[in-house]
Specification:
The chain is built from no helices and 25 strands. It starts with 18 loop residues before the first strand and ends with a strand. A hairpin with a 5-residue loop joins strand 9 and strand 10. It is an all-beta fold. Helix content is 0%, strand content 55%. The chain is flat.
Length: 313
């Protein structure tokens, strides 16, 4: 606001047009004229939008990208009563299960580091609710495997269980059928063949059939795989005409391979599509490659590069 109230005040309008704006103010007093420069910084308002993936007896909620220029946004979620969890922080994804079929008012608040905020809310109707006969259903990482455990309220409540897995929360595949035991309430299974999607996340749920042939589902459990260690072995080294390396992929994965000389020049560049599990990859070496020291670069789908010193003899 200008210090002289008798001068018409400038009005700046716009929606989320973030940036620095420089205005020149000209004032006339009789035959005199003066100028002043005004610098206005417009901070961006975070974009608030809720994305939903439906799942049996639950859903996965995620916030959309907050927009350009938003600094360190903080996300606060409220999923309503009788929801598990009832609240969360972070952009997501957040798997949520529901104990009742009532509509939920899903609320999202976003606060940026420069003080700008926004919010969004939606009404969500759960597809189904949790089965009271299922006491618990949990999935946990154990080294490179996933351990799944579940417990029923009483032995013999169900005829059978089918454990299902998905890499996108939409299409679930059966991985094992477990018959019910009339003397058993607790069950466990270890998944040793994890397959993940583009986000390195795997989802599990339990499909249950009771003694009256009624079908029900457990909550969906999410496991993040991005911290899984990928051990790479390179051989032979030194090499002559070809180079091999082993690479463990946690899902179908495209990697990029480069050979770089000591001056940083890329001598060879190619891409490989790998299948889930341990892959043995062979790289044919160009005949023009002279003897000496090089760097083998293996670039994962997350754009992470691993470098290996190799020697052509």
């Amino acid at each position: 606001m200008l210090s002289n109230p008798s001068v018409s005040q400038p009005i700046f309008q716009g929606t989320n047009n973030a940036g620095n704006y420089i205005y020149t103010l000209r004032a006339n007093s009789g035959s005199c004229e003066t100028f002043a420069v005004i610098n206005i910084q417009v901070k961006p308002t975070p974009f608030a939008n809720i994305e939903i993936s439906d799942g049996s007896c639950g859903a996965v909620f995620r916030a959309s990208d907050p927009g350009n220029g938003v600094i360190n946004p903080v996300y606060t979620w409220n999923f309503g009563l009788n929801s598990n969890p009832g609240s969360a922080t972070g952009i997501g994804p957040h798997p949520v299960s529901f104990a009742t079929a009532a509509n939920r008012n899903i609320q999202l608040d976003i606060q940026s580091a420069d003080g700008c905020s926004n919010n969004a809310s939606i009404i969500y109707a759960p597809l189904c609710v949790l089965n009271e006969k299922l006491v618990s259903f949990e999935a946990n990482r154990y080294n490179k495997d996933v351990n799944i455990q579940w417990e029923t309220a009483a032995a013999g409540d169900y005829k059978n269980f089918v454990l299902e897995r998905s890499d996108d929360m939409r299409a679930f595949q059966s991985i094992i059928a477990v018959p019910s035991n009339i003397n058993q309430k607790k069950y466990t299974y270890t998944d040793r063949s994890i397959i993940t999607g583009s986000n390195n996340i795997v989802y599990y749920r339990l499909r249950m059939t009771d003694n009256l042939n009624n079908l029900s589902y457990s909550p969906v459990r999410m496991i993040k795989i991005e911290n899984a260690a990928t051990e790479i072995n390179v051989w032979p080294n030194p090499f002559i005409n070809r180079l091999n390396f082993s690479y463990q992929a946690f899902g179908k994965e495209k990697i990029n391979i480069r050979i770089v000389d000591v001056k940083g020049r890329i001598i060879l560049s190619e891409a490989k599509i790998l299948n889930p599990g341990i892959n043995n990859v062979t790289v044919e070496i160009p005949f023009m490659l002279t003897t000496g020291i090089y760097t083998l670069q293996i670039i994962s789908k997350e754009n992470k590069t691993k470098n290996f010193k190799i020697v052509r003899r």
